[in-house]
Amino acid sequence: MPELPEVEAVCRKLRREAMGARITEANIQRRRITSPQDPAEAESLASGTIDRIDRRAKNIRIRLSSGLTMHVHLRMTGNLYVIPDHRLRPLATSAWFTFEDGRALLFEDTRGLGTLQVRADDDDAGLGPEPLSRAFTPDVLIRTARASKQPAKLFLLDQRRIAGLGNIYAAEALHAARINPKRAISRNNEAKLRALHAAIVRILRDAVRSACIAYSRPGRFREAEGFSPAVYDREGEACLGCGRPIRRITQGGRSTYYCPHCQR
DNA sequence: TCGATCCTGTAG
DNA sequence: CTACAGGATCGA
Question: What tens digit of pLDDT does each residue of A127-143 get?
Fold first, then answer.
């Protein structure tokens, strides 16, 4: 389930629970998650105390006292959280890191598509601006949009343009801005692009807020109340704007939900 | 720009 | 049984 807001929530919770912890043992359970890095190398590098935890796009970065950084990407089904004892780890464990105080940082991932690498730097090459940072201004969006021939939906999913938007929130933002997902992003006028910028920021902020509430509750689970999609996963249901049915199409191999009437 | 691919789980 | 899943990369 992780898109930017959920990753942000995971990150903030980790920051409260794992900052300053000393890693005494690292265990990569699924070899492929570190690819192309050798799992043994990742294990040997993941030591020392945790100095900083932050997020870039959908990556969680855990900075270690050695100066190295663990880069964790949860992909579709990953989750990263602290458990009281590593022996409590679930079956679908991709990696775990024991702390000096007996707790453990757990990387759980049902599908196992998530990744973890220990790298010498915060290498973000190629990622676009963070949509919730000051760098993401309406003018930045307008400039990059004008230069792209991609369909609007694929443009929003392209991490090189805007870092961190995913399938749900891309669809929601396009609906809020009344933009047709199939149409080239560059063919929208300035007013629409400004509306899109505002929609992205507002929707992500709201989603971060509800994700944080959901994740801060005891247990390791959630269920984001507070956020109910206007179009996502609502094929055939009534558009909240015009009452006509929401349609589902495929773009880039993934579902896009939109209202053909409101989003022209 | 498409389709396949990495995996497992669940809904229909 | 098939289709699909909130992600991203690769090669044709």
Answer: 999 999 999 999 999 99
CA of residue A92 to C1' of nucleotide B8, angstroms: 10
Q: Where are the alpha helices (DSSP H) in chain A?
A: 4-18, 39-45, 138-146, 152-157, 167-176, 190-216
Q: Which residues lie near nucleic chain C, judged by CB under 7 A?
A: A 1-3, 6, 57-58, 73, 75-76, 111, 113, 157, 159, 166-168, 224, 253-255
Residue A151 approaches strand B within 7 Å at CB: yes
pLDDT in tens, A213-241: 988 875 444 454 568 899 999 999 999 99
Beta bridge partners of A72: A60, A116
Q: Is the whole model's pTM more than 0.85, yes or no?
A: yes
Distance of A180 CA from C11 C1′ (whole Å): 30
pLDDT at A220: 43
Question: Please, are residues A42 and A34 in contact by the beta-carbon 8 Å criterion?
Answer: yes
Nearest nt to the CA of A150 via C1' is B1
- Structure letter (DSSP) for residue A21: P
Q: Is the CB of residue A186 inside 7 Å of nucleic acid strand B?
A: no
Which structure tokens are listed for A97? 């890191």
Here the tokens at position A42 are: 């990742």
Note whether A52 and A85 are within 8 A (CB): no
